[in-house]
Specification:
By secondary structure, the chain is an all-alpha fold. The chain has helices spanning 9-16, 19-37, 46-94, 103-127, 145-156, 163-170, 173-177, 185-202, 208-233, 238-264, 270-295, 308-322. It is elongated.
């Protein structure tokens, strides 16, 4: 997640600066050919250019809206995880007959909270597994620029690659060592939580009503995980995602062909003034496409993601304090270079 109030020049160039090269090259080529050959047949009227530009902007706007919906839904899912995690931990720690709150029961209650923290980090890592349609899987694009961005993020946020350490801290040795047996370890952790809750109910630590409330929380976590996995594993339909880029390329190819003759009316050097205008207009369309393209995958491991590591750390701190562990609390994740993950 980008945290600066406004995009600075470095962030803008990092997002779309590479596209200025081919936009300038194409506009210069068209202007040079028109200037030195006087091939008037290569120009096109402004009316069809305007119609194409309007149609493209409507389509790109539609795609951007759908991408934002996916991004905002992902953020709402993690916001719900925050609230339910706090509720679950408060209920676990405070429910139960006081006569059963012996040392062993308190330890088992804390283990439920610990396991939930491990579930958070496990879910985060599972959602960050790259899919074939995400940018990290397309290394050939601009000489792997997104791969380099991902490496820079991991270098700036060392905790991004320390999930095994958090799992080892909050899981039992047996649970940690057996995680490779499960295709979806996060799902298994919730199932293990449910089993422990049943055991505590059978031992009369929790009443039926209390057990029902706690199990409802586990069902909610299953729902939240499934909702996040739906966004992760089902991309914005490719017929929409890819068509917008194709239409923009067609429009940008047509753009200097439609404007060069108009700018030539300004005088001997009017043709050359067409170049910066074509670059600016084309670049605006490219940026519109890129904003939607990156926003449609909110769990891709780049700076445009939902800040799952920061959210996990916030929940971890809250839950540890709920169970009266105030020493050696981890520090919140702070943004670095205008980015929070």
């Amino acid at each position: 997640m980008i945290t600066t109030k406004y995009f600075n020049s470095k962030q803008i160039l990092n997002l779309a600066g590479m596209h200025l090269i081919w936009l300038t090259a194409w506009s210069t080529l068209v202007a040079a050919v028109y200037q030195f050959t006087a091939w008037e047949w290569m120009t096109i009227p402004l009316v069809p250019l305007t119609l194409v530009g309007t149609s493209v902007s409507i389509f790109v706007g539609f795609k951007s809206n759908q991408a934002y919906d996916r991004l905002w839904e992902a953020r709402k899912i993690w916001g719900a995880i925050v609230n339910s995690s706090r509720s679950f931990s408060v209920m676990v720690y405070n429910f139960g007959n006081s006569k059963h709150n012996t040392g062993d029961i308190v330890i088992r209650k804390k283990q439920l909270v610990y396991r939930h923290i491990a579930w958070l980090y496990t879910l985060k890592d599972q959602l960050l597994a790259s899919t074939e349609w995400e940018h990290l899987s397309i290394e050939r694009n601009f000489i792997g620029i997104n791969v380099r961005r991902h490496r820079q993020i991991k270098a700036a946020f060392s905790d991004a690659v320390r999930t095994p350490l958090f799992q080892k801290k909050y899981l039992t040795d047996e649970e940690f060592e057996n995680q490779d047996k499960y295709k979806n370890f996060a799902t298994h952790l919730i199932a293990k939580q449910a089993k422990d809750l049943v055991d505590l109910r059978n031992e009369s630590v929790f009443t039926d009503f209390e057990h029902m409330q706690l199990q409802n929380c586990q069902n909610d976590f299953y729902d939240f995980q499934g909702q996040a996995e739906r966004i992760k594993k089902f991309p914005l339909p490719r017929q929409f995602a890819n068509s917008g880029f194709i239409f923009i390329v067609i429009f940008i190819i047509m753009l200097p062909l439609g404007l060069v003759s108009e700018f030539s009316k300004l005088g001997d050097y009017g043709v050359w003034t067409c170049i910066p205008f074509c670059v600016v207009v084309g670049w605006i369309y490219v940026v519109m496409e890129l904003v939607g393209d990156y926003s449609e995958n909110p769990f891709s491991g780049l700076m445009f993601d939902i800040p799952m590591l920061s959210i996990c750390r916030t929940i971890e701190i809250d839950l540890l304090q709920i169970i009266d562990e105030h020493n050696d609390l981890p520090d919140p994740v702070a943004s670095k270079h205008g980015v929070l993950i």
